[in-house]
């Protein structure tokens, strides 16, 4: 599933292609939405806003298209009249004279007005968005110390969009590693310094991933490894998908575990077990 940085980059590409452009066609695959096609065709896109792992495509007619990629959805931006070579099913298409924004495989698509957006069951529960430039360190630190979350294991908590908006599987492993925190710890188990490191890492790792097209490793290390011919899979992350490889900080072997039914990677030396005294 794409995570916050990937969704925001998709929003950037879509916005660049179709915002403030006359529309030539709007297509919905679902019968319940087809009645909106004509109304959108007489309008224009004014913004494409990421909301965690969802997108809100806003139009001048005061309506928005809500879409969530879920596990398999993917956006393509193509020249008008061109379609990707894929076996996926087209669910939504927004066409202009020059570009088309095409959403495949997603099934979570709705047309909403502003009141419906405010009351949407997913959107109204989202925590602070790590990629929103208005989100501050203090807001994130407060989430880690909030009584609602502080007794929950970090390995599962960082997948909860109500806690923080944006992280998914690779980001949780990377945030925990950069913060130097054991994945099974709870916020209440952490020192104040560790909580500060978690807040800092949550913002820094997620924003670096957005800015660098998915690189969460030290950029110096990543660039050096790339220059030596290492594969992107090996230089992209500190620990994620590097099971059995040496930690870039200490050399210990990266381990792989399952937490919240998802694979998680960590370094036992850089992220020591807090239960061991």
UniProtKB/TrEMBL annotation:
A Pfam family hit: Fapy_DNA_glyco
Keyword Glycoprotein found: no
InterPro entries from the UniProt entry: FPG_cat, FPG_N, H2TH_FPG, Ribosomal_uS13-like_H2TH, Znf_DNA_glyclase/AP_lyase
SUPFAM superfamilies (alphabetical): Glucocorticoid receptor-like (DNA-binding domain), N-terminal domain of MutM-like DNA repair proteins, S13-like H2TH domain
Example of a GO biological process term: base-excision repair
Domain FPG-type span(s) in chain numbering: 238-272
Class of enzymatic activity (EC top level): lyase
Ranges annotated as spanning the membrane: none
Enzyme Commission designation: 4.2.99.18
Keywords from the named record: DNA damage, DNA repair, DNA-binding, Endonuclease, Glycosidase, Hydrolase, Lyase, Metal-binding, Multifunctional enzyme, Nuclease, Zinc, Zinc-finger
Protein name from the UniProt record: DNA-(apurinic or apyrimidinic site) lyase
Stored PANTHER family: ENDONUCLEASE 8
Family: Belongs to the FPG family.
Domain Formamidopyrimidine-DNA glycosylase catalytic: 2-90
Listed GO MF terms: class I DNA-(apurinic or apyrimidinic site) endonuclease activity; damaged DNA binding; oxidized pyrimidine nucleobase lesion DNA N-glycosylase activity; zinc ion binding
């Amino acid at each position: 599933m794409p995570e916050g940085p990937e969704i925001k980059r998709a929003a950037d590409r879509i916005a660049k292609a179709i915002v403030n452009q006359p529309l030539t066609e709007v297509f919905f695959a679902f019968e319940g939405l087809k009645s909106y096609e004509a109304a959108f065709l007489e309008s224009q896109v004014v913004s494409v806003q990421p909301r965690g792992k969802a997108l809100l495509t806003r139009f001048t007619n005061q309506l928005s298209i809500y879409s969530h990629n879920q596990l398999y959805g993917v956006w393509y931006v193509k020249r008008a009249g061109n379609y990707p070579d894929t076996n996926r099913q087209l669910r939504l298409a927004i066409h202009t004279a020059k570009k088309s924004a095409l959403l495949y495989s997603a099934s979570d698509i709705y047309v909403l007005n502003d009141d419906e957006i405010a009351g949407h069951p997913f959107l109204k529960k989202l925590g602070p968005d790590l990629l929103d430039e208005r989100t501050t360190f203090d807001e994130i630190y407060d989430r880690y110390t909030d009584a609602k979350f502080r007794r929950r294991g970090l390995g599962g908590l960082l997948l909860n969009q109500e806690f923080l908006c944006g992280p998914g599987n690779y980001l949780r492993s990377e945030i925990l590693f950069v913060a130097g925190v054991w994945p099974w710890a709870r916020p209440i188990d952490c020192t104040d310094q560790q909580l500060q490191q978690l807040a800092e890492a949550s913002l820094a790792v997620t924003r670096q991933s957005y800015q660098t097209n998915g690189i969460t490793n030290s950029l110096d290390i990543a660039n050096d490894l790339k220059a030596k011919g290492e594969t992107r899979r090996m230089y992209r992350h500190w620990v994620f998908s590097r099971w059995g490889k040496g930690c870039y900080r200490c050399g210990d072997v990266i381990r792989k575990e399952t937490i919240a039914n998802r694979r998680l990677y960590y370094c036992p030396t850089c992220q020591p077990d807090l239960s061991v005294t």
